[in-house]
Amino acid sequence: MFHRILRSLYKEQQRRANRLYSLWFTSNGNGVQKAITNAEKLVGYPTSYSSLKYLAEEEPANFLGLAKKLVGSGHPLLSTARDLLSQDPHIGHHLGGLWVLLLSKAAGSGDNLDVLQSELVNGIHQKQRAIADTTELINTAFLVHRSMVDIVQSQSNQTLNLGNKLSVLGGDFLLAKASLELGKLENTKVVEMVSQAIGHLSEGATIERTHSSFDDLKSWEDFIFLLRGSLLAHSCRSAVQVVGHPENVCEDAYNFGMNLALAQRCVEDIEVYQNNKKILTNSNFVLMLARNTSKEINENCKAIDHQEPDINSTKTLKNTIEQDMPDIVNKTRLHYEEHYLSRCRSSIEYFPNANSVQAINDILSTLSQE
């Protein structure tokens, strides 16, 4: 019963998404929906929704019954769940597993004599699919963990407390599942790399909570690497390493994942900057670029460093930026296209599977159109 409910919810969300995409991408027929659909056909099956299947296997009715109690509380766990169900490809974390599978197919089978062609399905080894699933699990686990809220002593709200407990338990459950999947690979190097990425995610989440500002591009890139780039980079590297690719291919895969995460974050930060209902944080790339370009903007930002941002401070900052740097969004697009997206393309240009390389480039092109 629960599986049918999940499938019906997913199909309904897909129908809604299709209507939105038809409005967003109607001119050249090469929009994000078409690019992702073609990519999923290449790798054999859609990777979206994979992390939720684990929740569906373990007493889901109890979990959903508890989650219903959060309705109306404003707890961020509900919005996190909504984002996961919507599978909006504009939310970069939804494509983690798909990127790993596409890269795996693009790189080919490698030189490992222990890997038989019969073990490949659509050009992808079962271990590579396991790594893609693990990437989804870990990413979703941290998204759930990060939905926790601070509850001050004067705010003794049992519903918010329940939401925090569900965030902890749900995230821990998915991490435990990821650990089991990693163990099945029987590859200590992959376990080491993914474990390092989990440590980086924890470190990045801690830095994020401090609302720290970033003095230069390098410090911002280091932060985004911890928060999301490390997992994608190490997952891509692991996926090509398990089938015996040489070090230069592994390094190309790593660089692809790292630069892709940076590009996706820039796209998301532009969306936040242009949305009047979203709060602008110090880690936003648009704000960081403006601060490092304009002394006036930087001085205005110093007054709110290490403070919890809100709508009022966001409005003030945006007004200052738009007056001093009206072309800041175009500058941001130019930066991630010339740096991160171009590096992604150069990392895979010599990979042998031309169809998969083209599928990757098609999705990257939709990022350029944002």
UniProtKB/TrEMBL annotation:
GO terms for cellular component: mitochondrion; transferase complex. One of its GO terms (molecular function) is prenyltransferase activity. Pfam families: polyprenyl_synt. It comes from the Eukaryota. The keyword Membrane does not apply. Keywords: Transferase. InterPro entries: Isoprenoid_synthase_dom_sf (IPR008949), Polyprenyl_synt (IPR000092). One of its GO terms (biological process) is isoprenoid biosynthetic process. Signal peptide: none annotated. Belongs to the FPP/GGPP synthase family. This is Decaprenyl-diphosphate synthase subunit 2. It comes from Clytia hemisphaerica.
